[in-house]
Design a protein that fits this description.
By secondary structure, the chain is α+β, with helices and mostly antiparallel strands. The chain contains 21 helices and 42 strands. The chain folds into 6 domains: about 1-40 and about 185-215, Phenylalanyl-tRNA Synthetase, Chain B, domain 1, CATH 3.30.56; about 45-180, Nucleic acid-binding proteins (OB fold (Dihydrolipoamide Acetyltransferase, E2P), Beta Barrel); about 220-430, Phenylalanyl-tRNA Synthetase, Chain B, domain 3 (3-Layer(bba) Sandwich); about 435-505, Phenylalanyl-tRNA Synthetase, Chain B, domain 1 (2-Layer Sandwich); about 520-615 and about 640-745, BirA Bifunctional Protein, domain 2 (2-Layer Sandwich), CATH 3.30.930.10; about 760-850, Ferrodoxin-fold anticodon-binding domain (Alpha-Beta Plaits, 2-Layer Sandwich). Helix content is about 25%, strand content about 25%. About 40% of the residues are buried.
C-alpha cells in the first residue's frame, strides 16, 4: 500500500517536519512493515510557460520540428534558469525551445523544464539533466514537457497542455508545486489479516495509534443519501461456506457529467504516487475513493444498462468480456453482476466491457458493495486477474463504509465533472453485526507476559474502535466493522500489546535448564560434519525424493529391485519415491553445479534414507477431528514406518589438487573417497577397514567395502563410467556412502589421545611379494600385528606388477615409522620389528621379502 503524505495529512495530524522516513518509523511501531519511498524525482526550475509563437521547420530526416518562442517569466522579470556557456537566453523572460510535438497551439500554457532542472531518467542512477543544447540548427534553452516526462502517466500523447487539466496559472509559476510533484508516498506491506490498512483511512488511523495525533475519519466527512427506485436482487443459490455472495449493495445515479472534464492535477499526482495511472475523470474518481476509504466502487454507463442489477453465480457456458478486452469463460462458482442483457461484470474483480464508461459518458450509476472474500479470491485466481479491487475484497471490506463511499464519489463527480445527483439508486444491507468477545480480567497480562493496567486495556481497545461493556468477568468487546480479523480474546490481547507499544515487551532469552546440552549422537554428527568440512568438502542439503530406477541402482549391491516408500501425493510426480541412498541426490547436485561451470567438486551430505523391509503399508483408520488415536492405531502406524538410518555420503569429481607452478593437477578419484573414510575414522574414534568389494553401480576394479568389526557399513568407490556419463558427469566420479548410525554406535565415549614423543622416529620400507589375489589391506594388517608396539604408522606406498616379480604375484611396499616413548631407537631395533611384521605376513599369506 502506497500512501501519499499530503493525502495522509488530510485525515491525521502528521507531525510537522516529518520526513517519509519518520512516517515509516511511526507505522512500523504499530506492526506495519516498511517497503519503499516513492517520489517524482523532479528538481530544478520547472515553470509554467506560455507559447508565444512557433515556426514549423521540416528536416532532412523527414521529421518536422517546431522552433518555439516561450515566455517563462512575466514580462520584465528574470527567468529561473541559471546561465550556461551554450545558453543564449538564460535568465531572459522568453526562451527559444526546439520541440518535436505538434499538439499545442500559440497561447497555450505548458510546463517548461529550464536548464538546470532534473527529470526521471531510464533508471534511478541515470537522471535526465536538462541543459541548453544545440539541435536542428538552434540552441534549445529548455524543454516543453509531456505528462510521461513529468512522471504523471505512461502515455506520451504529446505536450502536456495545462488547459487539459483545467489549470490557468500565471507564467513563471513553480509547476512542481502546482502539479503536486513535490509530494511523496511511503509504501508499507499489508498482511492479509489487516485489509483495513489498504486505505488512507486505515493508515491514518494507524498513524494516530502510533503518535497520538488527532484522526479525522474521511467516511464521516460526507453525508450519505440513499437512492430509491433502482432494482437490485441478490440471487445466490450456491453460497460458499454458507455466506451469500453479497450482503451490501449500494447504488446512486449522477447525470450530466461533462465527458471532457479533466482530472485535476492534484488527483493525478496522488493516484500516481499510490501506484494507479490516470484514465479519465470518472474512473479516476472511483479509484481515488477506493484508495481513500478502502471501499472499491464501480461506475456503469447508465445508458448502457438494461433494467436492474442481479448478483448471481455464473450459469454453464456463460462468457464475459472484461474491461481488459479478454473473453472469460465463466465457472459456476464465479459471482457475477448482471442486468437483463446478461453478465456485465465479474463481481469484485473487474467490470465488463458492455457497460464501460467512455469519452461520451454523461450519466453513470455508482455502485459500492461488500462481496464474499472467498468467492472473490477464487475468481481472481481462477481467471489470473488480480486487481486493486479484488485485493481489498479478499481481505474483507468494512460493510458499513459503502454508503459513504458512494456519497464521496457523487460529491467528487459533482465538484469536478459538473454532474448532478438524482434520487435513483438503492440501498441493500444485510451484513451481520460483529459478535461481542469476552476478554477475561488479567488475560492480557497472562498471555503477553507484561502487566497492563485496566485503563491501558480499555483505552487501547476503545482507540481501535471497539465497543466496550464492563462485566464481572471482564470486558465484553464488540470489534469495529472494519476489523473482521478480531475473532477471539487472543486477538484483543495482541491489539492491546500493539497499541500500548511492543517496546513494553522485554527481550529475554530463555535460560537452558541445567544438565542439558547436545546428545551424544548430536555431538558425533557435528564432529563428523566439522571434520569433513575442515578437510575441504562442502556440505549440501538435497531433497530426499528420487525415482524407482535410482533406488534400484543404488539401494542394493546386487538386487535388481529394492522396496521403496512411494509418496501418495508427491510434490513432483517424476520423483515419487523416498531415497534409499544419498548418492542420487549428490549426483543431481554435482550435475547442476557442472552445468554452471563448477567442475572441481567435493560434496558431502549427512541425512536419512528410507529402507523398508518389505511392502510399505499405512493405515486407513486415522481418527478425524480432535479425536485421539487408539493404541492399536498407533501400533499400526509404527509398523508402517520404514527403517531410517542416518548416512553420510560424499562425491568427488574434477581435480582434487589444481594445477600450480611446478605441480601437475591431481585428478579426483577413489583415493579421495578412501581418504575421507580415514578422516571419519579419526574424527569418530573408530577403526574402519577397507577391502575389495563389488556393487552394480560402481567400477568393478575400484570399489572398496568399508567394514566395522567385520560388518560392512558402506562403500568407497568410483561410479561405473556409463552411470556417470548417463548423469552428464565426467567419466571419473568417486563416491562414498557409510552408515553413520552404525559407526557412531561403535564410537567410544572418549577418544584416546596419544602423547607426542620427544624422541626421533626411525623409518624403514618393507616390500613383500604376495599372490595378486591377496588384498593389500590384509597384508598391511599382518605387518602391523607382527611389528608390535614400536610401530607408530604404516601405509601402502606402492603396488608393483611387472618384470622382477613372478607372474600371478605382486610386490607391495609399505612405509613404516617406528618410535619409542622412552628412548631413541637403534636401526637394529627398527629392523627387528620390521622383520617380525614380515614374518607374520609370511605365515598368513606366504609373503616373501623382495630384495
Amino acid at each position: 500500500m502506497r500512501i501519499p503524505l499530503s493525502w495522509l495529512a488530510e485525515y491525521v495530524d502528521v507531525i510537522p517536519g516529518s520526513t517519509p522516513e519518520d512516517v515509516h518509523a511511526a507505522l512500523v511501531k504499530v506492526g506495519l512493515e516498511e517497503e519503499d519511498i516513492h517520489r517524482f524525482e523532479i528538481s530544478g526550475p520547472v515553470v509554467v510557460g506560455e507559447v508565444l509563437d512557433f515556426v514549423e521547420e521540416p528536416q532532412t530526416n523527414g521529421k518536422t520540428i517546431r522552433w518555439c518562442q516561450v515566455r517563462v517569466a512575466p514580462d520584465g522579470e528574470t527567468a529561473a534558469d541559471a546561465s550556461t556557456e551554450l545558453s543564449t537566453s538564460a535568465g531572459e523572460a522568453v526562451h527559444g525551445i526546439v520541440c518535436g510535438a505538434r499538439n499545442f497551439f500559440v497561447g497555450d500554457k505548458v510546463v517548461v523544464t529550464l536548464p538546470g532542472s532534473v527529470l526521471p531518467g531510464p533508471t534511478a542512477s541515470t537522471p535526465f539533466v536538462i541543459a541548453a543544447r544545440k539541435t536542428y540548427g538552434h540552441v534549445s534553452d529548455g524543454m516543453i514537457a509531456s505528462a510521461r516526462e513529468l512522471g504523471l502517466g505512461d502515455e506520451h500523447d504529446g505536450i502536456l497542455r495545462l488547459a487539459q487539466l483545467g489549470i490557468d496559472a500565471p507564467v513563471g509559476t513553480d509547476a512542481i508545486a502546482l502539479l503536486g510533484l513535490d509530494d511523496a508516498s511511503v509504501e508499507v506491506n499489508v498482511t492479509p489479516d489487516r485489509g483495513y490498512a489498504l486505505s488512507i483511512r486505515g493508515i491514518a488511523r494507524e498513524y494516530a495509534h502510533s503518535t497520538g495525533a488527532a484522526f479525522r475519519d474521511p467516511a464521516a466527512a460526507v453525508e450519505p443519501v440513499d437512492g430509491e427506485g433502482f432494482t437490485v436482487v441478490i440471487d445466490d443459490a450456491a453460497p460458499i461456506r454458507g455466506r451469500v455472495g453479497a450482503d451490501v449493495f449500494v447504488t446512486r445515479t449522477v447525470r450530466g457529467i461533462d465527458p471532457k472534464a479533466p482530472t485535476p492535477a492534484w488527483m493525478i499526482a496522488r493516484l500516481v504516487l499510490a501506484g494507479i495511472r490516470s484514465i479519465s475523470l470518472i474512473v479516476d474518481v472511483t479509484n481515488y475513493v477506493m484508495i481513500e476509504l478502502g471501499q472499491p466502487t464501480h461506475a456503469y454507463d447508465l445508458n448502457k444498462l438494461t433494467g436492474g442489477i442481479t448478483v448471481r453465480r455464473a450459469k454453464p457456458g456463460e462468457k464475459l468480456t472484461t474491461l481488459d478486452g479478454q473473453v472469460r469463460e465463466l465457472d459456476a462458482e464465479d459471482l457475477l453482476i448482471t442486468d437483463e442483457s446478461g453478465p456485465i461484470g465479474l463481481a469484485g474483480v473487474m467490470g465488463g466491457a458492455t457497460t464501460e464508461v467512455g469519452d461520451t459518458t454523461t450519466d453513470v450509476l455508482i455502485e459500492a458493495a461488500n462481496f464474499d472474500p472467498v468467492s472473490i479470491a477464487r475468481s481472481a485466481r481462477r481467471h489470473k486477474l488480480p486487481s486493486e479491487a479484488s485485493r481489498r475484497f479478499e481481505r474483507s471490506v468494512d460493510p458499513h463504509v459503502a454508503r459513504a463511499a458512494v456519497a464521496r464519489v457523487v460529491q467528487l463527480l459533482e465538484q469536478l465533472g459538473g454532474g448532478r445527483a438524482d434520487g435513483l439508486g438503492s440501498t441493500l444491507h444485510t451484513a451481520a453485526t460483529a459478535e461481542p468477545i469476552l476478554l477475561p480480567n488479567g488475560y492480557v497480562a497472562a498471555l503477553v507476559g507484561v502487566e497492563f493496567t485496566d485503563d491501558e486495556v480499555r483505552t487501547s481497545l476503545a482507540e481501535i474502535g471497539g465497543n466496550l461493556e464492563v462485566t464481572d468477568d471482564g470486558l465484553l468487546v464488540t470489534p469495529p466493522s472494519w476489523r473482521p480479523d478480531l475473532g477471539d480474546k487472543a486477538d484483543l490481547a495482541e491489539e492491546v500489546a500493539r497499541i500500548v507499544g511492543y517496546d513494553r515487551i522485554p527481550s529475554v532469552l530463555p535460560v537452558a535448564p541445567p544438565g542439558r546440552g547436545l546428545t551424544r549422537s548430536q555431538q558425533l554428527r557435528r564432529q563428523a560434519a566439522t571434520a569433513l568440512a575442515a578437510s575441504g568438502l562442502t556440505e549440501v542439503l538435497v531433497y530426499p525424493f528420487v525415482t524407482a530406477e535410482q533406488n534400484d541402482l543404488f539401494g542394493s549391491a546386487v538386487e535388481e529391485h529394492v522396496p521403496g516408500v512411494r509418496l501418495a501425493n508427491a510434490l513432483d510426480a517424476s520423483v515419487p519415491f523416498m531415497r534409499t541412498s544419498l548418492l542420487p541426490g549428490l549426483i543431481e547436485t554435482a550435475k547442476r553445479n557442472l552445468s554452471r561451470g563448477l567442475t572441481d567438486l567435493a560434496l558431502f551430505e549427512i541425512g536419512l534414507v528410507f529402507r523398508p523391509d518389505g511392502a510399505v503399508h499405512g493405515t486407513a483408520a486415522l481418527p478425524a477431528g480432535a479425536a485421539l488415536p487408539t493404541a492399536e492405531t498407533l501400533a499400526e502406524l509404527e509398523r508402517g514406518i520404514p527403517a531410517q538410518p542416518r548416512m553420510v555420503g560424499a562425491l568427488f569429481t574434477g581435480e582434487s589438487t589444481p594445477k600450480q607452478p611446478g605441480l601437475a593437477a591431481v585428478p579426483a578419484g577413489v583415493a579421495d573417497a578412501l581418504a575421507t573414510v580415514r578422516t571419519l575414522q579419526d574424527a569418530l574414534g573408530v577403526t574402519l577397514e577397507v577391502r575389495q568389494g563389488a556393487h552394480k553401480a560402481f567400477h568393478p576394479g575400484r570399489t572398496a567395502e568399508v567394514l566395522l568389526a567385520g560388518e560392512r557399513v558402506g562403500y568407497a568407490a568410483e561410479l561405473l563410467p556409463q552411470v556417470a556419463l548417463d548423469a552428464d558427469l565426467p567419466r571419473v566420479v568417486a563416491v562414498l556412502e557409510l552408515d553413520l548410525d552404525a559407526i557412531m554406535a561403535a564410537a567410544g565415549s572418549d577418544l584416546e589421545v596419544m602423547p607426542i614423543s620427544s624422541y626421533p622416529a626411525a623409518t624403514q620400507d618393507l616390500s613383500l611379494v604376495v599372490d595378486v589375489s591377496v588384498p593389500a589391506a590384509d597384508v598391511l594388517a599382518s605387518v602391523v600385528d607382527g611389528a608390535g608396539e614400536l610401530l607408530e604408522n604404516a601405509r601402502v606406498v606402492d603396488d608393483y606388477r611387472g618384470p622382477g616379480v613372478p607372474d600371478g604375484s605382486k610386490s607391495l611396499t609399505f612405509a613404516l615409522r617406528f618410535r619409542a616413548s622412552d628412548r631413541t631407537l637403534t636401526a637394529a631395533e627398527a629392523s627387528e620389528a620390521k622383520l617380525a611384521g614380515a614374518a607374520v605376513a609370511a605365515e598368513r599369506f606366504s609373503a616373501t621379502v623382495r630384495e
